[in-house]
Each structure stands twice: as structure tokens, then as C-alpha cells.
Amino acid sequence: MSNQRMRITAKTTAALIAITATATSAVAQEIPIYNAGFEEYKLVNDDFSWKEIGGAPGWDIYDPDSLFLGVNVGDWNVHEDAHPGEAPEGLNVGWVYWGLVSNTAAGMQQILDDTLQADTAYELTVQVGNAQSYWSEFNQWDYDYEGFPGYRIELVAGDTVLAADDNSIVLDEGTFQLSTVNYDVKPGDPLIGEKLAIRLLNLTNDIGWEVEFDDVKLNASPIGGGLKLTIDSNCPNAGKATLTASGGSGGTIAFIYATGTGNVTIPNNLPCPGVTLGLNKTAKMAGTAKGNPAVFQGNAPAGACGRIYVQALDLKTCALSNVLLFD
Ligand SMILES: [Ca+2]
Ligand SMILES: [Ca+2]
Question: Are strands 252-258 and 309-314 parallel, antiparallel or unpaired?
Fold first, then answer.
């Protein structure tokens, strides 16, 4: 990697600052989730995918206690006799079925590309549904969905559950309701830099057998209008790169890069000692810029694209920005 590091030479222009000064900071960012609405499979009404034919794309089966034959998951073009209001989003919903009362949480999980960021408030929202019994003409099957096995929605970093909605909503038969899970990252959170994950679980606590999910969204907002890093690059080509940190103190901002995310601590001989970065121990300073926003410009090789992570540090307040992949 050594010859692929981002070589940035400081060249901050007044014109560039004027252009970017109008950029807003502290806005919520939606974190990408694959197949968040379970629309990946195009299905006719009441058709569904299940684990033997790919389940719900992007979502892995999460079954830590290995229920007999395994919990079943997939996409389903929900039928109006099971949910008179149809899907909350699009045509399909995700489903998690287990036909026994096992008192074991199982379902689906998606590990995201994004990592837990310092000074960030996360809000996870999911539509959760309780199908009612219905006769399926399409599947030639009488689905007995009377009752509800319970649900849990977890926001996870690494292997640690940050926050969860543990069956807090009482769902009528044939309805969906919105579940919300919040987590605020405090300074020094040891999980900063760990990969985020979302789990959608069936508690298998009762008959009814199935829980549906739809329209999964994860938003991240800087806490207290914190330092917000954005990157403008020529990726996948080499060329001019602009790193912008907004919402800072107006003093000097350091732009730091590394070959991976992590939780390296700044040593005592440097500014802001003891602060834990969201980067690994290869962290090096690309350079500094002053102001709010602070704009740092340089040239980056193509090899940095998709391989280098960047974070900004306010040297006056020691506030950290989000970590971004240089791309
Ligand atoms: Ca949907
Ligand atoms: Ca039911």
C-alpha cells in the first residue's frame, strides 16, 4: 500500500472556500441498505422467495441457536387477504417464518459497509407486520397466521447490540406499524469503527409463526452539529481531491487518512492526545486547513480510490468527523 497512499499537497484557494461555504452541515445522511424494501425479486401477487432460492437478497439468515431445519426468510409480494393495507412500501415485504414455539430469536441480518461513527445519532426505522390468516389461491394453501410470535429489531456494531425494539408494539392482525430504534454514539465509544448491522428477528414466542418487515431505513446525524467530512474526488481516476470539513470551530482542522477503519488512539506527543480515531494504526496526516468549512485540496493517485479512509479532526476542540472511504 505504501506507494498507493494519497499524496496530497496543500493548496487552499479562497474561491473554493467561497463555493463550499454555502454547503450545509449537520444534515441526516441515509446509510445504504441493500434490498431495504425487499423489492429485489420481481414477484407476482402472493408469490415469494425463500431460503432455498436465495431468501431475501442482501439479508443473511441469522439463526444463532440453529432451529431445526433453520428459520425461513424471503421476499413476499404480500397478498391483500393477509395484509388488507398491502405492503407499506412497494409491492413486497420481507418475511421470517418459524412454525414452532421455540422462544428463540431468529431471522435475518445485513452487515452494512458503513461503520459506527463518532459523535453521531443513529435512527433505524422498520415497518413491522403481523399477517392475518388467509387462503392463498396462488399457493393453494391455507395459511394459519392467527396470533403473533413477537419481533425484535436490533441495531448492531461488530457483534454488540447497540439498541433494540424488543416487541414493544402491539400489532393487530393484518397490520404494519413503524418501529424506531435510536442510538447516540458517545465520545470514547469502544465500538467506533466497527461495522454496522441490522437484525430483523422473529421471537418464536407464540403461534402465528410469521413476522413481516419492510422499508428499512438507517439515518445518521452529527450530534450537536458536529464536524462533517465530505470528499470530492476524481475516482476511479487519479486527480484533484477536495476534502471539506464543515461544522467545526473555525480553527485548524487536520485531515487524517489510513488504509482501514479501526480505533487507534492519538499518542501523547501529538495534538488531541488520547482521542480515539475511527481509523487503524496506519493513520497519517494528509494536511491541515483552517476555517468553517475547512477545505483541503490536493492530488490523489488512482490507487487511493476505494482503499483509503479519511477522517477530520478539529485541533481546537478535538471533535472528530465521520469516517469516509476515499471514493
Ligand atoms: Ca417493500
Ligand atoms: Ca398473525
Answer: antiparallel
